Amino acid sequence: MRTSEQVLNRAEIEKSGLGERIQSLHSILLARYPFISRIALALYDPDTDLLKTFASSNDGGPTLQRYEATLASVPSLTQLRETRTARVVDDIAESFPTASAHTDWLKSRQYRSSYTLPIFRGTELSAFLFFDSTERAAFPPLVCAVLDQFADIISQLYLLRLSAVHHLIGAVDIATGLARIRDVETGRHLERMAKYSRLIARGVAERYGLNDEVIEYMHLFSPLHDIGKVGIPDAILLKPGKLDADEWKLMQQHVAIGEELIDHIVTDLGLQGDTAAIIMREVVAGHHERGDGSGYPRGLAMADIPVPARIVAVADMYDALSSARPYKAPWDEARCAEELRNQVARGLIDGPCVEALLGADEARRQIRERLAD
Question: What is the pTM for the complete model shown?
Answer without folding.
Answer: 0.73
